[in-house]
Write a structure and sequence with these properties.
4-stranded mixed β-sheet, 13 strands, alpha+beta, 3-stranded antiparallel β-sheet, rod-shaped, single chain
């Protein structure tokens, strides 16, 4: 009888094991059946994704629940299920949101580890979140995402830098380099009214005809008659032409069409 009992016990250890069921699935080494209970996995405190600690070595397939948060660098770990691939810890959820990721949302308040970018001070955040914000490079405040678009930074810019304008005002330096010129037409030869055409010191040099003309003009001047003398054909000339742009320097709105949302950053719970 003792030999039979030992044999039965040995066989039960090498067959499928059922907890909460007497007939576990044939393809399962272990089946746990319950409608109101779960499986509680080992709870450990991981230090870094690349370190096996608290295990002595990386073991491929090992599954644990991490209860710790390590915010000393961006290769961070935070509470959740992890498995070991033999070289490092990997969070089980492939769609895990990373610390520092952004999203646009119609939500209006912080939720599920997402914090509104509204320029608030780091010290106003929950105590567990503050070191994560600092690890991202925010010295004293979160950026204020109000009325801003997201843009990839250049090599010389710092993360979180705000810049740009919603409008521009054109100046003459912004206009195309075009020369506008103008001249009068070829019929520019014309007459000019003249009060006299000779100085008094030269009267003695005048011919009879010229003297007669001078006297005639002098008499006309006294009687308010405006005599004229026609200039010679070489009187053609040009006039400078100016143009008025008529501009008022009203700024140009360069904001593209948009849908207004709130911007959130993920800092975890």
């Amino acid at each position: 009888m003792r030999k039979l009992l030992l044999l039965l016990f040995y066989c039960s250890l090498n067959a499928q094991v059922g907890i909460g069921t007497s007939s576990p699935d044939n393809d399962a080494m272990l089946e746990v059946l319950s409608s109101d209970k779960g499986i509680l996995l080992p709870r450990v405190k991981l230090e870094d994704l690349s370190l096996s600690t608290p295990l002595t070595a990386h073991v491929s397939g090992m599954i644990v629940y991490n209860t710790a948060y390590n915010g000393t660098n961006l290769n961070t770990v935070f509470p959740g299920l992890y498995y070991n691939d033999g070289q490092r810890w990997v969070r089980l959820n492939p769609n895990t949101v990373k610390i520092g990721e952004l999203k646009n949302s119609f939500a209006i308040a912080d939720h599920n580890g997402w914090y509104l970018l509204n320029g608030r001070t780091i010290s106003s955040l929950p105590a567990t979140v503050q070191p994560r914000a600092s690890a991202l490079g925010f010295a004293s405040n979160l950026p204020d995402g109000s009325n801003l678009f997201l843009r990839g930074k250049s090599a010389s810019e710092t993360l979180g830098l705000q810049g740009g304008n919603n409008s521009i005002t054109l100046s003459q330096a912004n206009l195309p380099n075009i020369n506008f010129t103008g001249t009068t037409n070829t019929s520019g030869i014309h007459n000019h009214n003249m009060d006299s055409f000779i100085g008094m010191e030269n009267i003695g040099l005048l011919s009879t005809t010229a003297l007669t003309l001078f006297v005639t003009q002098a008499v006309a001047k006294e009687t308010n008659i405006a005599p004229t003398k026609t200039s010679n054909p070489s009187g053609s000339h040009t006039h400078t032409v100016s143009f008025n742009s008529g501009g008022t320097a009203i700024p140009i709105d360069i904001t593209p069409n948009y849908v207004a949302t709130n911007i959130f950053i993920y800092l975890g719970n």
